[in-house]
Each structure stands twice: as C-alpha cells, then as structure tokens.
Amino acid sequence: MNDSFRPSDSLKNVRYEIRGKLARRAHEMERMGHEIISLNIGNPGLFGFRTPETMRLAMIENLRQSEAYCHQKGIFPAREAVVMQQQARGVHGVSAEEVFIGNGVSELIDLVLRALLNDGDEVLVPSPDYPLWSAAVTLNRGRAVHYPCDPGNGFIPDPDAVEALITHRTRAIVIINPNNPTGAVYPRAVLEQLARMAEKHGLVVFADEIYDQILYDDAEFVPMATLVQDTLCATMSGLSKVYRACGYRVGWAVFSGRLPAAADYLSALELLSSLRLCSNVPAQWAVQTALGGYQSIRELTAPGGRLYESRAAITAAAASSPYLRVTVPRGALYAFIGIDTSRLAGFDDQTFALDLLEQKHVLVAPGVSFNVPYRNHFRVTNLPDAATLKAVFQRMDELLAAYASGASETPAAARVVDAAARFK
Fold first, then answer.
1. Confidence of residue 9 (pLDDT cuts 50, 70, 90)
2. Is the peptide bond before 329 cis (omega within 30 degrees of 0)?
3. Which domains are delineated in the chain?
C-alpha cells in the first residue's frame, strides 16, 4: 500500500505564487491577530470598490431566468453585448457565434490552450507575465517560451527579439495589454509589428485585454483585434477589473480574423465548453448592462479619482526612496517596483517579500512570481487609498534601510537560504 498520495507530475513546473506560500503565511498571521495589508492581488472588492448598482439590479431582475443551464457559449444578450463593443472599437466580421463566455478569463485561458496545444507545442508568453498563462501552457502539454519585456525599455517588448524566438513548434503568442504586472500600455507601432509577425508565421494571437479601460494620463489602448486580419485573434476580457466584479466570475473570449481557417479549432473549443455545461448564469445578465451603461471606471482613473491618486502615491513614494525605482504605470492596477541593487547588493525578492510580511505586516508579490530571470522586483496593487500606500512604502523603506545598514535580523545569506527553503 502506498503511504502517500502523490500529485500529478504535470504540476512540477506549475507556479502561482501570487496565492502561494506567502499568501498562506499571511492568512496564518491574520488568524493570530495581526493586521496584514495585502497588496499581492488586484481584488477591488477587498478595498471598498463596489460593482455598479445597475449590474446588481440586472442580475436580480433575471434570477428567474438563471436557474437552468444556458447555452455552452453563454446567454445571447451577453454575447451580443460583447459583439457590439467589438464593433464599436472597429473590429469587423464578428457575431455572437464567435463569443465564448467563461467563469472568468482564468477558465477561458485554460480552455483556449487546451483546444489548441499538442505535446511540446510552444507559446510565446511575456516576461514578466501573468503567471496563469505560463501555468496553463504547461498544464496543457505545451512549453511557455518567455519573450523579454525589458525594464530598461519601459517593459515594452521588442518585436524583433520576439520573432527570433519563433520555431516550427510555435503555435501562439500571448499579448497582455494593458499589462499585468507592469502597468505598461503598448504603443500602436509595437502592436502593429507583433500583428504582422503573427500573421507571417501563422500564430494565434491571444490578446489578454482585461484592463482595457483602466488607463491613466494620455495612455491610448489599441485593441489587438483591430490590427490582426490574416490570422486568428482571440480577445479576452471580462467584468472583474473594469467593473470591479471579480466574484461574479464572468469573462469572455471573442474570435476575429481568419475565422474560416479556424473552424475546427472553434468547434473543439465549443466541445470543451459543452463538457463544463455552461458558465455562471446569473452574472452573465450583468454583461449587457455593464458594457452598454455608464463607464464609471473613467472617474476612478482621472485626476482626483481614487485609482489615479493611489497610483500617484506609489510613483511619488518610489521616486523619493533611495532604494526603489519604478516605471510609471500607464494602465491596469499595479506597479512593478525595482530595487537599486547598487545600494543593496545581493537583494533577493522572495527574501524581501517574506521579511516585509513577517516584520512589517505587508504582503507583496515577489517579481520571480511573474517568470522573470532577475530577482530585484516586486509587484504591488494601487487599489488601497493613497494614505495607506504612503504608510506601506514608509515601512518598505525602513526594512530596506535596515538591509543597507546591516541591521536586519539575520545575515543576508541566511535569509536567502531560509526564504528558499520556505518557497520550495
């Protein structure tokens, strides 16, 4: 008899540290009575943001129609609302038949890759990435090939460097814009180059655009589907971020471009959608109201709005710190903070995240969680109010100053070893 139940070998290279051991340690500390400021996840509802009331009313008014399974692709009003949004953005040739509603974009990431990949197929994924993309590629028998989005270039990818990574096994490219974790918003010229590259090599374009309306200052969001014509483009978005409805679990994938050539692939995706019967029905009734109604996100991201002012607090704190560096986020809900290693040689992001949690009761996501080769970054969300963020960065500077003076509780080498042991 086996004395242990081993997990599947398919999980060996799967990581999702955003909700990993650090987060579990934070929960332990909270149960012990400590108040933890959690900056590791972009979860608006935890920071006092509310879903628009009209969306809640739309769900309530349609509860009677939500008790049966719906079509595997989703209810028609929701899919048609997505089509209308795409058409208003200049995307042509799309109907409700090309829209799939899922239990959040997270479920759809898994389904679109499962329908596409065979053993050893490669998918180009940005580095830093949203780690679910790399994990889902691995779980679906593929290989994530990370293309660099260099901090020195504002985290904008170099299309020529991306193309150099393409092999005969490359099937798709993932483009996250506005970007999580960096807050970069990609210029039109870069997106056009990536579109031509994907068309040249016959790659599926997975455009993760969940933050499409969360923009600051003069940032311009360019929908990838308006640029991709001669290959298949899957635009993925949902209610979680722009409409502050993470718990509703409603996302969508809408396909455009070379649709006739993708008929078998889309049939396979419909089969997978059928196997899970359907996605959450009540919250689908909020989609039409959300996309067709007043876009309150614009008040939050404009000067004086809470997201705008919180972002300003982060950039000001980093600018005034002797240890921190940041590329000002132009979109999304995050900042990817760098450490000046000329002042803190040997800095390790996981060690810092652990020390910050244990000593200062602040939870961040270490940069290595986002599949980067360097160890001097971490991600925070700008969802807390500006005053809270100012206090958080003061705590960070206190810890970093202790590192710099050698006054931290354990020697740097011992901290690195301890952190490595905890993260295994």
1. confident
2. no
3. 10-39+303-423 (3.90.1150.10), 53-292 (3.40.640.10)
